[in-house]
Specification:
Elements (H helix, E strand, L loop, with lengths): L1 E6 L3 H11 L5 E7 L2 H10 L5 E4 L2 E2 L2 E2 L1 H6 L5 E6 L5 H4 L4 E6 L4 H14 L8 H10 L6 E6 L2 E6 L5 E5 L2 E5 L4 E3 L4 H7 L5 E3 L4 E4 L3 E5 L5 E4 L7 E2 L5 H9 L1
Parallel strand pairs: 1-2, 1-3, 3-6, 6-7
Antiparallel strand pairs: 4-5, 8-9, 10-11, 10-14, 11-12, 13-14, 15-16, 16-17
Length: about 250
């Protein structure tokens, strides 16, 4: 049996996920936790399960906080309404990342993926499994930004560029500029590289919003929507930039 735990602070969502998991005869639910505090206590006092289904944003923090306090070797399938935490999730033994509401078909695929990673006599060792998981990283498709006391979801395909200023990374849309919680290094790893390219230390641009490219005396990119700063391509990235444009 595959011992499983649910970490979810919304009781209706926890009950629904529990019902979905009950349809899998080889899964055994051994605990349902609803906060960081409860999670830390449970994982401290109990043997860790094989598989964890975890929301990310809990009432008293992020579920990441649990595993930073009590490291676990359990595999994790994250279930959340927002996908801005993908990079950190995949650094913490995550094998999949399901957006709410969780559909049974997506859940089945995630569980099948977990089973495919299980070592057998002719299968992978743990190091190879973790390597496979890293290759399975999902791309960031939407970002949660804060506007005063309100939250807004921005689709990444609406973003003209990301740029850093005074140690804060902003995203630029047709509507306006929004601050984010990312670094450019993090974004470079999880954005779709077919659309996004880091032209220099300060900017990542979206090819769908390129308005013009000047090549003399240096490469300069004009975007449909951009901050006042000039966007230039670093000399050491010009060739890579040209190759990226031609793909």
């Amino acid at each position: 049996m595959i011992r499983t735990v649910i970490i979810e602070d919304e009781k209706p969502a926890a009950r629904k996920l529990g019902r979905l998991l009950s349809r899998f005869s080889d899964l055994q639910l051994v605990g349902t936790l609803n906060s960081v505090e409860e999670g830390v206590q449970w994982f401290t006092e109990n043997s860790h399960p094989d598989l964890i289904f975890s929301d990310i944003v809990l009432g008293d923090g992020l579920s990441f906080d649990i595993f930073e306090q009590v490291p676990s070797k359990s595999f994790i399938i994250y279930t959340t309404a927002f996908d801005q935490y993908t990079l950190k999730a995949f650094k913490l033994n995550s094998i999949d990342y399901l957006l709410k509401p969780v559909m049974e078909e997506d859940l089945q695929k995630a569980i099948d993926k977990y089973k495919s990673f299980l070592p057998t006599e002719s299968n992978h060792n743990l190091k190879e499994i973790k390597s496979l998981i890293k290759e399975e990283k999902q791309k960031l498709t939407r970002i949660l930004v804060k506007i005063g006391y309100n939250l807004k979801i921005v689709q990444t395909d609406e973003v003209s560029c990301f740029y850093s200023e005074n140690k804060i990374v902003y995203l630029q849309t047709k509507e306006r500029t929004f601050p984010t919680d990312f670094t450019l290094d993090e974004l470079q790893e999880i954005l779709d590289q077919k659309c996004f390219f880091r032209v220099n230390r300060q900017f990542i641009i979206n090819s769908n919003y390129i308005k013009n490219i000047h090549t003399s005396p240096y490469y300069k990119v004009e975007m449909e929507f951009q901050p006042k700063e000039e966007i230039t391509v670093s000399r050491d990235r010009v060739k890579i930039f040209k190759d990226w444009l031609s793909k």
